[in-house]
Amino acid sequence: MLEAANNHELPAIPAKRYFTIGEVSELCGVKPHVLRYWEQEFPQLKPLKRRGNRRYYQRHDVIMIRQIRGLLYEQGFTIGGARQKLSGNEAKTDVTHSLELIQQMRRELEDVLTELKN
Q1: N or C: which end of the chain has fewer CB within 10 A?
Q2: Domains of the chain: total
Q3: Where along the sequence do coiled-coil regions lie (predicted)?
Q4: Which pLDDT tens digit goes with each residue over 77-92?
């Protein structure tokens, strides 16, 4: 579901555990108020909330937001259609998330290995 063609212009997701709403906004090219709205519309999107209702997104949330963005902005889905597509493909989406995470971690480890060799 996460298609590189749709998200190649977006920055790489840094190796962090938690992201603020501002960071996610920049990483996904979506304004913070849109992210808050999508939380209400997509049950798969559940950032952690801490003191003062501050949102902390994890890597899988960022990937999900990029998928939602691709469906809505690039593929022309409605909110309802995107919600249905995501809920119908949850198992496939989980595998896609895992593969994306593994690929990114591998690239980062290869970069670290290259730097250590130099």
Answers
A1: C
A2: 1
A3: none
A4: 999 999 888 887 555 6
Element (H, E) at 48: strand 48-50
Which residues form the domain of 40? 4-117
Contacts 24+ apart (CB under 8 A), 88-91: 89/1, 90/44
Q: 1: which residues sit within 8 A by CB, 6+ positions away?
A: 67, 86, 89, 92, 93, 96
Q: Give the C-alpha separation, 20 to 23, whole Å.
A: 5
Of the candidates 41, 45, 89, 43, the one whose C-alpha atom is nearest the C-alpha of residue 66 is 45
In this predicted structure, what is the pLDDT of residue 6?
45
- How far, in Å, CA of 12 to CA of 14, rounded? 6
8 Å CB contact between 66 and 26: no
CATH code of the domain covering residue 37: 1.10.1660.10
Predicted pLDDT at 4: 41
pLDDT (0 to 100) of residue 20: 94
